[in-house]
Amino acid sequence: MKIGCPKEIKPQEFRVGMTPNAAREAVAHGHQVMIETGAGVGAGFTDADYIAAGASIVGTAEEVFAGAEMVVKVKEPQAVERARLREGQVLFTYLHLAPDPAQTHDLLASGVTAIAYETVTDERGGLPLLAPMSEVAGRLAPQVGAWTLQKANGGRGVLLGGVPGVLPAKVLVIGGGVVGTQAARVAAGMGADVTILDRSVPRLRYLDDIFHGTVKTGYASAGMTAELVAEADMVIGAVLIPGAAAPKLVTRAQLATMKPGAAIVDVAIDQGGCFETSRATTHQDPIYEVDGILHYCVANMPGAVARTSTLALGNATLPFLLALADKGWKRACAEDRHLMAGLNTHAGKLTYAAVGTALGLPVITPEAALAI
């Protein structure tokens, strides 16, 4: 199979869809790999690294899209990239379609077979291709939130860990999954007073066990959430419904109850965000203020640590990438229901129910798509 990896063009996105090691593995399996020149530079990989791995370097993204049977990326294709996709081609990347009708309609119009990293599942009900980036974003959240809280950035001027005689900042983490767990770990490590909210009592028991009392837990009722939001110096939104739009858990009216200069970090912004006042920002201009509350809503947080993120993502995606290339997408999906769960569009049909619900579009089952 001809596999193509273009350079990411979303603002401030430095990751790359294939590492040189992934290219080497694909070539060893008998596939051709085309990398756009400079695609790996942001993550510390040179064209020479890819050539040494057996890949070929091409000069433009147009050549990658035109020549590739499967396009491997990191972020969702931008409008100019979507115009280059075609029926019969496989797109393997993050998509996050539920809050993005424009992208969804363009993918359907192109006829491309789009497999989304974020909806591929595993035997435990997890999301193995989302998990590594969730770990990165979770660990980054308290770090960027601490920066947002600095007075020079418009924040409250609060040090997360406090100092002797001065109480630490209060950090509320909404959602106890991968993002929330990692965010709580780092925030607690920085000395903050951390509380995690979740609606799963078994998950809360697990969190209570692993943190050994260094982090508090609470059931995420509307009342408890409102109470703790009002007390927090920083609120980290870490709620995910696989493939669907994130629920809005904090309203604009609740901002008035918060401390002036408090910080919101919305890690769920890729799925539309879990705060009513969230809107996507970039690393170049990451913060905005609403009613005195600072919002950090960067939609590609892991791009800030591009090398770590690229290596972690590459480790997770490689087995699926090889399965798609070795077997073809239909056989690979037919033999692996977890990979099939990643199928979002095929031949102009939407195949992921949660996206159809979010956007009011008709959906067929992935099994039906295999027969097209």
Structure, described:
With 372 residues, this protein is an alpha/beta fold. The chain is 37% helix and 16% strand. It has two domains: 2-119 and 306-370, Rossmann fold (3-Layer(aba) Sandwich); 131-299, 3-Layer(aba) Sandwich (Rossmann fold). The strands form two sheets. An eight-stranded mixed sheet has the order 3-2-1-4-5-6-14-15, with helices on both faces. A seven-stranded mixed sheet has the order 9-8-7-10-11-13-12, sandwiched between helices. Helix 8 (201-211) links the parallel strand 8 and strand 9. The chain is globular. The two termini are 21 Å apart.
List the uncertain runs. Answer: none
The CATH homologous superfamily of the largest domain is called: NAD(P)-binding Rossmann-like Domain
Cα shape: globular
Helix content: 25-40%
Major beta sheet, strand line-up: 3-2-1-4-5-6-14-15
| Total DSSP E strands | 15
Q: What is the CATH first-level class name of the largest domain?
A: Alpha Beta
What does the largest sheet look like? Answer: 8 strands, mixed
Listing every helix as H and every strand as E from the N terminus to the C terminus, the arrangement reads EHEHEHEHEHEHEHEHEHEHEEEHHHEEHH
